[in-house]
Amino acid sequence: MNLADVQFSDHDRVVVARLTGEIDLSNAESIESAIAESTPNHALALILDVSALDYLDSAGIHLIYKLREKLRARNQGLTLVIPAESPSNDALRLAGVSAVVDTVQTLEKALAEFAEANSGRAEVPNQGPV
Amino acid sequence: MQVVTPDYRAGEPPHRFAPRTGQTVLAPVEPELAPSHQVEILYRLSDPALSELGLEEFLDELLVRVRDALDVDTVAILLYDADAHELVARAAKGIEEEVEAGVRLPLGQGFAGRIAAERVAIFIPDVDHADILNPILREKGIQSLLGIPLIVEGNLIGVLHVGSLHPRTFDQRDLAVLQVAAARAAPGIERARLYSALEREHRVAMVLQRSLLPKRLVDVVGVQTAARYLPASDEVGGDWYDIFELARGRLGVAIGDVVGHGVRAAALMGQLRTALHAYAIQDHGPARTLELVDRYVQSMPDYAMATAAYAVLEPDTGEVKIASAGHLPPVIIDPAGGRVVEIAPSAPLGAFSYGRVQEHVLSLRPGETLVLYTDGLVERPGVPLTDSMEELVRVISGTRFVDDLVRVAVERMVPAGRLRDDVAIVAIQNTEISDELRLRLRADPRVLAEIRHLLRRWLRHHGANDSQTMEITLSVSEACTNAIEHAYSPAPAEFSLTATADDGLLTFVVRDAGRWRPPRGQDRGRGLTIIRAAMDDVEVNSSDTGTEIVMHRRIAR
Questions:
Q1: Which residues contact B217 (CB under 8 A, 6 or more apart)?
Q2: By CB distance 3.0 to 4.6 Å, which of B93, B212, B451, B463 could disulfide with B270?
């Protein structure tokens, strides 16, 4: 039985990974590698949407930190979508994750932020990587 | 008395065949020539029960009686392999080597080969000077031989021959006795052979059936499950059951019965079980899952029909969603008794194009057991179905554990002796939540989700609100994660979890036999941070014998 499922979508070079189910020690590692593999080098960033996740604990937080490290090495951003009332917000709050990872309340907001950053870059092509 | 067969009786005159060295072709003789005391011995062979023994035992019995009746040293039976066009040594007394060596003889040559090809009796007075093919006969020191064909309804079955270690003239009376033996034996061999073939198909179907049923039941903390399958005596059927985990701690339970018997039904059963399972884990729910299986059956090239019931249990709430495609109604057993749950079944799978399946909602309180079964358990000649279903409820009422329930149901409901239809039964019980939780758990990450589901039920039972439930579940899961992580891999190991409540103060103890593992890497050790933040206090006691995490949390005064 797969405790969790992850669905990917591409939004103009921003990969959105939407997680459902539960993440714990039993599946965190395989989900982490599934997400890493589905985020190509040419992607600008990854949005990890955990708003529909029923459960997440330190194994899941470990997953987020590992992903952040991998993406940072490729100069890619990571944003976490997590509404305040989401069940998995508990662990994130108790472990102080929002201090380390960019966190927004909705997927729309996350996408809008990246779109803005993108268009900014298009207008000023010589600015170099942000 | 009927002699061997018309073919043999009307056998061509002996002179038609080219003479072979040392072989004498004998014309069939009148059966009256057989001395009655010798025939006596063979009479018992006609016992039809012999055909049930299987070919091996039957031939053994036959040979002993022929040897005694004719007072010979060797007796052998070669059976005709129509595909290879050969005779195969199948059973022997006195020349067992023939069978052990797996002697195969071509039709038309030598002694036995000629008997079979020409369907005549042949007498060899002196083996040393005769045309024989099988060296074993000579090596054994056989001096004289007499053999006749075994024929049933005009078809060659094989050859029966007897031998003597001293020179002997087999006369017409001996031939008459051998003819009687052959007449008795040939149909028996054919029946036994058929029986063995059926037996073989039965075995194949059994192996197939067994391999298609779950090897072991899911082991879910907080839910007890048991199941049993009994194949029919003559033919396997298409009964199946299945239990599997679904997302969010729910459990799927299915039962079904494919119309028909034998290998085909067993194979079809395997397909339907797989289809149902595959649709079910996509979270379609019972009614839609059965509708999709129905579409699957409709799309199969061959006509197929089956009944099935599929239920999804939500252990947290005890809610059961169930749908039935023409299947017998479920039974719910509670500590005080039990009842047949009358849910209106929809049409069987494969019955109508685009059949609609209805869903029903039941409640399975802690301590109650849902029982699904196939008709083999309750169908009996002359007994109305409703009566035997009531009887089922009566006999399993009062059983406390699912294992007992399933055992009692089979023992009391299935008649002793031959089983006319196969039987499947599956039971799931929503475990009663006790005031204390004492669990021994395998150190396997997969138990974590089950622990959380059980813990949520337990916390609700003790009046914890949603946010308390969430924080406590998280903390206990972290402590268990820790126990699993530093538990002594790769050998299978266990750890324990106890939860107690005392006037609004909850205490949780997670104990394992491993050493406390200091946090590794900068990101680890977060588990303990979370526990510290969520619980009132936490204590880690580590010793040579193991590690213990004790956590307290007050939820009410």
A1: B225, B226, B227, B243
A2: B212
